[in-house]
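Dear support,

Our group has been running a series of protein-ligand predictions, and this particular one with guanosine-5',3'-tetraphosphate is the one our PI (initials K.S.) wants archived with full inputs and outputs. We had some confusion internally about which version of the output was final, so please treat the block below as the authoritative record. The input we submitted was:
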Amino acid sequence: MSILQEIQKRRTFGVIAHPDAGKTTLTEKLLLFGGAIQEAGAVKSNKIKKGATSDFMEIERQRGISVATSVLAFNYKDYKINILDTPGHKDFAEDTFRTLTAVDSVIVVIDVAKGVEEQTEKLVEVCRMRNIPMIVFINKLDREGKDAFDLLDEVEQKLGLSVTPLSFPIGMGYDFKGIYNIWEKNINLFSGDSRRNIEETIAFDNVNDPELDKIIGEKSAENLRSELELVYEVYPPFDREAYLNGTQQPVFFGSALNNFGVRELLDCFVEIAPSPRSKASDKRVVNPDENTFSGFVFKIHANMDPNHRNRLAFVKIVSGTFERNKPYLHVRHGKKLKFSSPNAFFAEKKEVVDISYAGDIVGLHDTGNFKIGDTLTEGEVLQFKGIPSFSPEHFRYINNADPLKSKQLEKGIDQLMDEGVAQLFKLDFNGRKVIGTVGALQYEVIQYRLEHEYGAKCSYETFPIHKACWVEEPENPKDAEFQDFLRVKQKYMARDKQGQRVFLADSAFSIEMVKQKYPNVKLHFTSEFE
Ligand code: G4P
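Confirmed final output from the archive:
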């Protein structure tokens, strides 16, 4: 098979959802179809219930599990599918945002009863901003939920999407009789008494077949016919171009738990979802079918074993092929590195591979060379874009609680920040270190990991900051307005880990005041700007 064919058969995507919508269940069913796992229950959820730190610590201790579920790859028909794990818990939102830089499309899972929830809104917004193609899967149709048309409206309103259903439910909850597959133009009947088994499906080519009345009842059949008429009237036909450029989102209905509607979703997905897409860098746009390799680190996983401070850096291959033992340029360090045992992922296992293709993820063993966003190439000096840091939501001073271990603390903080666990800011006027996180949970995680992996102790002190604003440097650094801003706000000026200037604003009001008083000072809410 040629390299181009290898690349074109790849589908690298993420499943995003509010916790409990059914992401893990759906992923598992997809793997079952691929024959990658034999039984349900094989995919471990690394879900954190209600923010319990103990749960998180337990998960961290069983790090093997979460490494394994970071990438789940399997073959289906002629396709190679890579599913990237995206934590649904809001405290790990930043991890999910970064993973979204490595996917070529997403499937959004929505609970039919709960509709669009908070995390779904945030994650979809990020995908929308990046024009990532999205398919919506409305789950739990075996339960009582919202009316299908109301739900489609809600998805459009709350998520700002333009949907078109590619399947449509027949009844719901107790009366759930099956699904009309608009994409394949047939009907699959849900005949579950046990409701827990993979159901047999009966295919109907024509919705007007009188046989249908006999099976689902005259009333349901009539209902379905009129609902479908409305669907065709209200929603535009599926337009693949529009889906690929992020302006139309097809919708499927089903029940992941009952494995109902999942095959239909998967069959359509492999057909319409994009193969690896091009990616912008600071120099040029890089295409997947280029001959030379390039890729970037989107995730770093630490091994919790204190005796092996070994990390796994996850690299998305953007172009060409990645080969074992071939030297690649670590662009930030300007040096060549070879990898003797790159890991590829298959189902929930990882194994050493000789060659991987654009679209694939390789896991590289790392002793501290990498940080999130690092680019690897065959020699070209370029840096991939679109892996920004967002402003944290919580800020605390970090103090050394064991003066004899200050070196260990430095190193620990440094490496945890490279992994993207949190962000570090250093105040200009007194050099104090401030840790910014998306969720309060991370502070305990950092404390725990510093102690167990680095033998260092820390304590925190509150620092009531509202938002981190990255400050654009003016063309003339001596600019009077800029200098005045720096002087007046000197207690709130800091540097991030890359040395970029950051204004730590203590309130929304203070940001407004800066905007009014210093109209030429440019503030940004992410670390990456033109
Ligand atoms: P998540 O990864 O998005 O957080 O969700 P997960 O798949 O863990 O599913 C959350 C809960 O919803 C699970 O129940 C799961 O069994 C259930 N679920 C998923 N899909 C369906 C469906 O199609 N119909 C119904 N009725 N339920 C569904 P749980 O009780 O929290 O966990 P468990 O004890 O069953 O594992």
